Structure formats: structure tokens, C-alpha cells
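SAMPLE LOG
Freezer: B-3
Tube label: C17
Construct: single chain, 422 aa
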Amino acid sequence: MSSQVRLRLLPSARCLFDQPVQVKVEGLRSRQVVTMRARSTDEKGVVFGSSATYRADGSGEIDLLRDPSLSGSYVGVEPMGLLWSMKADALHKKFQKPCALNPHVVKFSVHEEDREDRMLAEVTNERLLIGNGVSRLPVKGKNFQGVLFTPPGEGPFPAVLDLCTFASEKRASLLANKGFVVLTVPVYSDHPDNVKQMHLDHFKEACGLFTTTTKYELCEVGSKGVRIASQSKGGEIALSLTAFVPGVEATVWINGCSAVLLVPLYYKNQQIFPPLLFDTSKLIHTESGASIMKYGFENPVAEKNKDSLVPIEQAKGRFLFVASEDDLCLDSKVYMDQMVERLKHHGKENFETVRYPGAGHLLEAPYGPYCTSSFHRVLPYVVLWGGEARAHAAAEVHLWSKIQEFFKTHLSCDATQTKPKL
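STRUCTURE (predicted):
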């Protein structure tokens, strides 16, 4: 490495996962062209990486806030491009960070142009999912298990139930950094092939953790009701909770369905929804080896399928419907439009919508590697998730702010907001 070249991350090389950093290089020759790289390894051992070519200014400096990438994983001015453009070194891999205790560690480096073996400077970015003072507690109820994240301070805190398709702590832990007490519960706690039916009572029990006296002594919860964050399969569970369980004040639905999919849903020992099934003949196979599955489910508003639709007009709380217009997993934009039409038909105005052109199915917290395709896990196929990397990354930044704004707007308690610390 060159002793003259310095690579800096501002304001600090240690930050929260959802915080941007300013990447700067100093000590280069005037107008020198270099290759900048980012590398990370996920919890499955898969290596992700990106690279971009930059030209220094007359003073030998590069600032990703102002300077454009000339070529590489992205082009143009993209201050966080080295992060969101990282790709796996193997096909059809999604970045795995299921446990919030482990930070996302990224190595940024500067190299002589197109010479990976000639590194000039390097710095490590430690991107934390849990800020100082946030507690993490595994929770096991009678019929559910999850992880509870509580912010620092005395509260009271607004309560959020985070419904993810499979166990994941990223969104829950990051929301706890913003002053919410969050319980994250996976929809699938067993292998999907073993799940023949689902029970809304189990998720109602999870909601009750915030509203009843339990052994976890959640005295810091100040909510009179619960907010729900949901995505994909979790979306239909969230809709069902709003329709059948009192006390759900605000629900974020991201790229889900307006009906129940794949397995029947039961409540109080009775089936309330038969499922829409998947027609494998409608899969669209591509040369990449991944398939488009968004057309595999029948139209839920067709007369023969209406029993699978969730009666969201029964909900008392507010909805934020979010749909990616290039979702190749579910036809989420169509499903969102169907729900909006249904609510309007019943004279309801308790919703708002957000559409993201160019974004794919996997809208997550910002600044993680963008995934184009991976194994579906619920259906045994490698699928295309959709989206264009730059547009998808911008959507994640906007949505993350929108979710926090929506939850803070619809509060029934004077919740203390805390500033996360590292």
C-alpha cells in the first residue's frame, strides 16, 4: 500500500447499517485514475463485491459525494454505490444477515487502475444493526417465537410487530434504533413443505405481548395499539390481523398479496380463508436459470377466488401500501390497486399508497447488496426478484424514511423518541 494515499469514511468508519457514509480518497496524483472496491462476506460465507473507476481531481482527491464513477458496477454520482451494487461471487445468492448481533463488515479499498493486486489504501466499515443501549431478547410464546428489540431509555415506546417470511432481525433491530419496541416474528418457523395450514391466533398472541401483562414485563410499551410492518407472505397475515384482531393501528404492507396464498388460514379453529394455489405451468423460465413467478397465482378478485380475499374494509387502523412496479415475484402493484378499489368501494379513506418504478420485490433497509435472483425457499425454484439496481436502491432509501414517518404519525401514545448511539 502507498503511505501517501489515504481512504477515509466520514463521519466515522463505524455506523449503523442504515446510515450513509462519505467515502473520500486523498494523496493521489493529480487526475490519477484508480479502481475503488468494496468487499463483504455474509453469514453463509458468500463473498460479495463491487468496483468502480474514478478519476482524482487536480488536488489528487476523490469524493464519492460529488465525483462520478466512470465505469464498473455503476456509473455516475452514487455516494453509496459501492455498497448497494455489491454482487455475490456465485449465481443466485442473496445477502444473508439474519442475526442482528453481527455487524455488516465491508472492506473499502483503492487500487491502481484495473490492478487488484496493487492496493493503495484500505479501510474497514463496520455497519451495526444494533446501536448502544438497544436490548435483544429471544421470546417464545405458546404458539410463536421471535426476537424482541427494545430501545434505550424509559419510554414509553410505540410497539411494532415485524412480520417477515423467514426469521430476520434486520428491520426490527434498525427500527428499535429509531425509538420503537419491536417484536419480529417469522411467518414460517418450520420448513414450508411441513406447513399445511396457518393459524391467525398464533400471530394474535404475538400482538398480545404488547397489550397484556406477560413475564417479559413490557412496562415501557406506551402504545394503546400495535403497528405492523410486513412484506411478501407476511403481508397477508398483516391484512388478516387488521381485519379480525382489534388494536392494530397502522399497517405497512410491502409487495404482498390481497389474498391468502398457498396454505389455508385458520382462526379460532375454523378456516377463514382457502388459499390461492400456484400454477407451475405459468412459470416463465429465463436463460439465467431463474424463473419469473408473478403470473403463477390466479386473479384473487375473480369470482371463484373471492373467498381467499382478506376483508380489509373491516380494519379500523391505517394502511401504507407499497408496491414495486418491477416486482417479478408477486404482481404486487395489481394487488395493491385491488385493495385500494375495495376500500374505496366501502367508503374507506384509511390508506395511502407508494409505487416504486424500477424496484423489485425485495425492498429492505437501505445500503445492503441488491439481489437479482435467489432460491425462493417457499416454492422450490430459483426466481428473479425484479428491479434495476440503481432505482431499487433509491426506493429502499425513500421507503425506509417513509415507514418511520408513517408509524410516528399514527401513534396513540406520547412515545419518547430516542436518538440511537453507537
